[in-house]
Amino acid sequence: MTAEYVFRVRFRLDAPDVRLDPREFETVLRLPAVDPESEDDPDGWLFFRDNLWHGEANDERHLRQTASELLGVDVTSISFSELAIDAAELETLRAAIAENLAEFNADDVDEVLHKYLGSSIRVTD
Asked: How many CB atoms sit inside 10 A of residue 14's CB?
């Protein structure tokens, strides 16, 4: 899958023996989305369910900690921007959601996508 969760991340550098100016920086973090059909990480495709709510981080502290571990720096803020996904991958995701609809406490796939991703899905070419 080439789909990616896109986050804006602000991080701080700390160095005990030098002064830094600026000490804080902002970057874009692109986290690869797990294919719902992946046998290596069968629950990884549920990242959006476990971490997002209406297109925003549902637990910013947890996501900051996760990003800090990934980047090796002190992440001071993180915000979700979008799920960048191509049309075929979106159909695969929609099919996986439909097969597991009970896990989402929703009536249909569109409700699930809106509930967790809001309007933050960008279909790429």
From this structure: 9
Contact (Cβ atoms closer than 8 angstroms) between residue 114 and residue 34: no
Residues 108 and 72: their CA atoms lie apart, in Å, by 39
- The Cα 105–Cα 17 span in angstroms is 52
Kindly list the distances between the CA atom of residue 54 and the CA atoms of 11, 14, 50, 64, 75, in Å, as whole numbers in the listed order: 24, 34, 12, 18, 22
Per-residue pLDDT reduced to its tens digit, 4-57:
999 999 999 988 899 999 999 999 999 999 999 988 898 999 999 999 999 999
Q: Which amino acid is at 83?
A: L
- Residue 79 tokens read as 């915000």
Q: What is the model's pLDDT at position 1? A: 62
Exposure string over 26-59, b if 16+ CB within 10 A, otherwise e: eeebebebbbbeeeeeeeebbbbbebbeebebee
DSSP letter, residue 14: -
